[in-house]
Amino acid sequence: MKSAPHAVRREASKSRWQAAVDDLAHHLAVERACSPRTLEAYGRDLEEFRRQFSGAHGADPDPARVRTGDVRAFVASLYRVNDASSIARKLSSLRALFRFLVARGVVSANPARQVASPKRKKALPRALDVDAAAALVEAPSAPAAGVAGVAGVAGAGAGAPGAAGAAAAGAPSPAVLRDRALLEVLYASGLRVSECCALDLDAIDRDRYGEGCLVHVRRGKGGKERLVPIGSAAVAALDAYLADGRPALRHPRSGKQDASAIFLNRHGQRLTARSVQRLVERCALLAGTEATPHSLRHSFATHLLDGGVDLRSIQELLGHASLSSTQIYTKVSLDHLMKVYDAAHPHARMRPAKGERS
User: Fold this and answer.
1) Pair 33, 164 in one domain
2) Which domain holds residue 224?
3) Shared-domain flag, residues 82 and 144
4) Contact of 301 with 327, CB cutoff 8 Å
5) Per-residue DSSP letter, 34
6) What's the alpha-carbon Rg for the chain, to the nearest Å?
7) Which of 102, 117, 203, 213 is most buried, judging by how many CB atoms fall within 10 Å of its CB?
8) Which is catalytic among the residues 90, 178, 180, 192?
9) Catalytic: which of 16, 126, 221, 336?
10) Does the reported pTM lie above 0.70?
11) Are 329 and 301 in contact (CB under 8 A)?
């Protein structure tokens, strides 16, 4: 009971701005199911506005007294050190805060609404061609990768339990089996890297469609769930890993491992997104290309579109909330088609002579 007055004083000392930011964070976490990384991004952006405002006015902003001119001054200060996409994101964070406060009746208007976002050059997603994607997912099994696995620094290569025995027998190590299964699943499903790392053993559904195999994504973006099929190559790689790789990935001293996660590191714990990023980078070097986990997601969508799958189906598979997010792949596919045409058609390579009318 003695600590209660201290808690009251801490709460009383909290500025109106910080109280509003905390309320927004609670709303995003509980009602919108936003990820911790999203909450951190909002927090950083809003803290940057607080610092800029405080430096100009000598006090933290009161949400009810913030005006459009204050937001414009903040955005203007960002142009010196931020690109257009960063400025747009920070302005979006401010809009979200005041939109939330308007809905709650804390303020009467959104001062950030009238401030225009900078024009952003829309970058197209980088997709691998089919051969490059195949080389990437096969890289862990390539002779150059070795039986100890590509992802040693990712926490699962050399030193994983059973790796030495596998090397002696010439069989793939647990890390190699895991790396191959992980890349196959990423390419076969188009999952975000965070979604793939979050997969549990019971997410694999083999019974719903006979010989087909589905992955149940329970922790998608925004807390949304979806079912995604995976092909025979991914199923075979996953089965090999679950049978001969995953059982050996345990803590070297305690022998413990995460009982639910599919993809484990050498300590038997759930693999992290950063570890997967390092793995993909190293496999890309072996395959002679450049790639990230998101490149496999883009490749998945682009190759389906090239194969005749409609946009609505791709939207569902990717877990996009809006079809506009999926439509960018039509541009990617068209660019690829034009490059193929220009390279292959004889008259596409012909250019009119100087001074000649085309």
Assistant:
1) no
2) 130-296
3) no
4) no
5) -
6) 25
7) 213
8) 192
9) 221
10) no
11) yes
